[in-house]
């Protein structure tokens, strides 16, 4: 284990799931070195991620990109000479993490302190001190653990977990009662990894028919999802809050819910890390985000996917068959089971 860590940094994509993994890595460092200055760097959407990590005052959320040279200079001033810098694995097979970010990471890290993940870039062997192989047969969180081990850190926190800023007023504001509702999240931000509006409505109707009458259904989503959410819930007994809740609001609502049903997106990972019963619907891609080693074999997570429809490889299209052909009645029955 390193004798001391004064500063450490990780570069991440500007998404909830990726940043949650970055927080998990740095939280292991923070547990051993609580006085260390720790930061997570992304190119955009820092406001959203700051809201996500509002309960973690020790974690600096930094937005830096070439469009704002001052942000890069500020990053340089604050984190030059970092004892540990970890860049992210490529998001897609055959992809690569951005070269500009790799060069900045190299400039910030002390000699011996830059760790990255294998991808198709020919510059990796020159830039990095240590490279971690990327594997699709292990949980995503295991890559973070491998990076920590490569840096000499023991794994203090075996699985990622999340805390929110407790706010009892949230339930009152949305006229909900703790333990008397489920959260349904149908929106993935991209049609290529989500269910069609028609399929989402089919699931919502199945949930309403299957769940007890005293369990409300809360339909969440971003502001851009509100119109679609209202259409999905038209004439169905459900409360649509899409576009009305901040991330911290949603975290409080999830924490007090009976269960969460969601497509494979950031909201699902928030629910999993908050420890709530979760039923997630996923494409055949990214299955290692839901392997038992991700959140622990005892985590209350159920995954539905039609991987059998992609035996020759994933079919790239809007609303892929591997998620859009999931049996909504089976999903609804599973949600009902975990709410008992």
Automatic annotation (TrEMBL):
<protein>
    <submittedName>
        <fullName>Uncharacterized protein</fullName>
    </submittedName>
</protein>
<dbReference type="GO" id="GO:0009244">
    <property type="term" value="P:lipopolysaccharide core region biosynthetic process"/>
</dbReference>
<dbReference type="GO" id="GO:0008713">
    <property type="term" value="F:ADP-heptose-lipopolysaccharide heptosyltransferase activity"/>
</dbReference>
<dbReference type="InterPro" id="IPR051199">
    <property type="entry name" value="LPS_LOS_Heptosyltrfase"/>
</dbReference>
<dbReference type="InterPro" id="IPR002201">
    <property type="entry name" value="Glyco_trans_9"/>
</dbReference>
<dbReference type="Pfam" id="PF01075">
    <property type="entry name" value="Glyco_transf_9"/>
</dbReference>
<keyword id="KW-0328">Glycosyltransferase</keyword>
<dbReference type="GO" id="GO:0005829">
    <property type="term" value="C:cytosol"/>
</dbReference>
<keyword id="KW-0808">Transferase</keyword>
